[in-house]
Design goal:
Layout lengths: L2 H23 L2 H10 L9 E4 L14 H17 L4 H6 L2 E2 L2 E8 L8 E11 L3 E10 L5 E10 L1 E2 L7 H4 L1 H10 L4
Antiparallel strand pairs: 1-4, 2-7, 3-6, 4-5, 5-6
Helix pairs in contact: 2-6
């Protein structure tokens, strides 16, 4: 494989080791801080979506609004893989509304296609989070769409939350997921 493919495999293995340590030890700070300082990037298992018949229009093509739904499905899976599902955040009094979303459509999809959605933490400053979504047909490897969503973190009363103070464990996980510039 190419050097990029090798690096991705190496990073996925690293993530599994990191994730195993995180879930067995339960102390993200001792793991996350040194990795963040070294500029490590963590790759998550991609989300796979099977295009459903009801998601297509009269022409047999997936309606454009569904890609945004798939991004949400992938985002929820991504957060759960990091150990911070939306239910856990909300139980801790934090909500994360969508501030903006955009999607560039590259190729059409149809009923029964399998779409792999990979997510990268594109930006994170402790209060706002930007995620990038790359959607590919799993059989052809064609990019079918590229999207982005922007989120903030709020308390239940709607005031901004600095995760560094309120949920330092989640703050550290998002920092080590931040894409290297």
């Amino acid at each position: 494989p190419s050097s990029d493919g090798h690096e991705l495999t190496k990073n996925r293995r690293f993530f599994m080791k990191w994730r195993s340590h995180f879930f067995t030890k339960g102390n993200i700070d001792e793991v996350a801080k040194p990795l963040f300082e070294k500029g490590m990037v963590i790759y998550m298992k991609p989300y796979i979506h099977k295009v459903q018949y009801y998601e297509t229009d009269k022409m047999g093509i997936t309606h454009h609004s569904n890609y945004i739904r798939w991004m949400e499905e992938a985002r929820i899976d991504f957060m759960e893989q990091m150990g911070w599902g939306y239910d856990k955040m909300e139980n801790r009094g934090i909500i994360s509304p969508v501030m903006g979303v955009q999607c560039d459509y590259k190729k059409t999809t149809t009923f029964n296609d399998r779409i792999r959605i990979e997510i990268e933490v594109e930006g994170y400053n402790g209060i706002k989070l930007t995620l990038k979504y790359i959607m590919k047909d799993i059989y052809t490897e064609n990019v079918v769409a590229i999207g982005e969503s922007k989120h903030c973190f709020l308390s239940e009363d709607g005031s901004p939350v600095a995760l560094r103070k309120q949920l330092p464990e989640l703050d550290n996980v998002l920092k080590i997921g931040l894409k290297n510039e």
